[in-house]
Write a structure and sequence with these properties.
- By secondary structure, the chain is of the alpha+beta class.
- 49% of the residues lie in helices and 14% in strands.
- Helix 4 packs antiparallel against helix 7.
Length: 196
């Protein structure tokens, strides 16, 4: 769907052994965070994510609130130590989830790994690569993940959300993005814990 919508390269194969996706080669230039913060890039990314989020959801889900819990459990099961700060962060995550009630919004197809290196500038516009975290989820996690990973300042964050919504954001929409920045960082931190 993302390929048909023009935001991803064509999927050539989905293999089970080893499990992997094979996409067509994308000729173009890998973006940098600095380039993605430019006004024309902000508009292009916002349009690409709006298109992606308009695709039908897929069976695989991506729930940042459950994912950090699974990372903590996996760490403990393999004999690792979950940092003391986890409990405080998990309590904050529970407050965020209760305040936003993301389950009340329909899940959308999300990329969930919006690092600059996953954007390729092509003659046909931006293409997103590296789809292994893709799943149906909460759009504001995807938006916040882009903001965090590419170092947008408050003005850039507001410009990005305005471009995505194609209007000025409501206070609740701006708050959802700001709160999901915390979840983006929490998920990333817990992925680091699992890796260690």
């Amino acid at each position: 769907c993302a390929s048909a919508a023009g935001v991803a390269p064509a999927l050539l194969a989905s293999l089970e052994e080893p499990p992997c996706l094979v996409f067509e080669y994308v000729p173009g230039e890998t973006m940098s965070a600095e380039r993605l913060r430019a006004p024309e890039s902000i508009a292009a990314v916002a349009a690409a994510l709006r298109t992606l989020h308009g695709c039908p959801p897929i069976a695989t889900s991506f729930d940042s609130f459950r994912l950090v819990e699974r990372y903590a459990a996996a760490t403990r099961e393999s004999g690792g130590e979950v940092p003391d700060a986890y409990e405080e962060a998990a309590a904050a995550a529970a407050q965020i989830e209760a305040a936003l009630a993301p389950a009340s919004e329909a899940a959308v197809l999300c990329h969930n790994d919006l690092l600059a290196a996953n954007f390729i500038a092509t003659d046909g516009g931006l293409k997103l690569v590296d789809w292994e975290y893709a799943g149906s989820g909460y759009r504001y996690f995807d938006l916040a993940n882009f903001v965090v990973n590419n170092g947008l300042d408050p003005a850039g964050e507001l410009a990005f959300l305005s471009a995505y919504l194609d209007r000025e954001p409501l206070p609740a929409e701006a708050a959802a993005l700001r709160l999901m920045r915390i979840m983006s960082d929490f998920r990333e931190a817990m992925w680091g814990v699992v890796q260690r």
